[in-house]
Amino acid sequence: MVHFCGYIMEYLSKTYLLYIGLSILCISACFLWAKILPKHLFYSRKVLHIVCIGILAVSILSVQKDNIYQFVCLLFFIEILLIVAVFKGFFYSEGRKSWGIVYFLPAVISLLLLFPNDKFLIFQSVLILAFADGFSALFGRMFEQYLEKYRFVKFQKFNLIHWGTDKKTVFGSFVGFVLINLICYLHFPYNRDGFFLISCFLISLVVTATEILGSKGNDNFFVPLVSFVLMKVFIQLDSVWNYFEHGEPNNWFCLSLFFIAAFLLIRLKWLSISGTVFAGLIAFMLLLSQWSLIPIISFFVIGTLAGKLNKNVDSDKKHAKPRDAFQVLANGGVTLGLSVLFILHKIWYLEVLMLVSISVASADTLSSEIGMRFGKKTYGILNLKSMPKGVSGGVSLAGFLGAIIGAVTIGLFNQPYFWIIVISGFLGSVLDSILGLLFQAKYNRDGQITDIESGDLAGGYRFITNDTVNILSNVIVVGICWFFISNF
Length: 488
Fold this sequence. Notes:
two-stranded antiparallel sheet, mainly alpha, 19 helices
């Protein structure tokens, strides 16, 4: 530890003392502000967010390539200090410890280690977190208080967004959207054509949606990561330009279909607005990868129709309701990540892994829906104890049949790897049941065990939901397949 601190001090003696000094000054001023005017606690926290993360963004631009690892060590040291400070209650706001302040540095450290040659994109990503995220919350709160002061009740209801668990506002999100666009313009391509404008619009839309869905500060982690990936793909690699200029003639027709399909899916209540945004992103990334949309569309249609079999059954609070962003990402997030990796690295077997991911999601969805509709008896997958239908971890013969149908449906899209896709999908469904039985939150409601959130926790962990289990099982199965396909 002494050697590590000496290493840091040697590095600090050369650079960044000014940035650290300014950050300490800002922290001191904001804490003094909050102490003198307790009612301004929210505003002092947001000013602290904007200034300190803005200083970090500027410092990233000034770091030399040879000093990247020293800079990362410095950030790691600061992260440890922040964790200790939050744990000791130093950062406390609105009745809880502000853990959000420790989330952004791991994202920045990961980007610096993985993409050391993309300092400017990392700078932009951190600047988006500092300004767009900070000012959106700041102006959103100010506008909300203005509406309350003058009792504009109708506008108050319109101004609220009910996507995630935290309260977000339309006005604040619009401010963030505009600022993200402006920050994207900092990256000057050779020609600012319509494709650049489309790229900035898409980046701003998705990053704004990511910020809206964030809760308890976790958007501090996801916003810079999502911003970086989208700017890397859409702006630096000119993927939008390449797709429309060098792709098939019907590409513009596909883009038009996005908007028509989005409208219909919302009207049919198959997707919520947040779900539509991320479903559109997944579809667009698949098109940029030049992968077929048919497998994931097939899964979505079959899974949604299967859900209608049990529309009067409450297996959890989201069952038979429009799929939101969390459900879309739980089932399609791995596919989204694989498509991004393919755009960056063009590894051939990523398309097979994409089908494996969709197969796992399809098998799990059909297993649950068919099992609830046609299964006569449900048993715990590990202990074989009788369980109520629809509770995670329960399996039935009908459910196993549904898993096979779901996996086979996706396996048909790739004959050479048919059995790998089918077996992986089925095993993914089994793994989902095991994880659901062991870890997913279960509640006691009127003497019955259920997945629907209620007061009394009967088993598992409150923070592990069905969406969490879905994405964990998907990541594990795809990771195992990746290992075997790439090594054998």
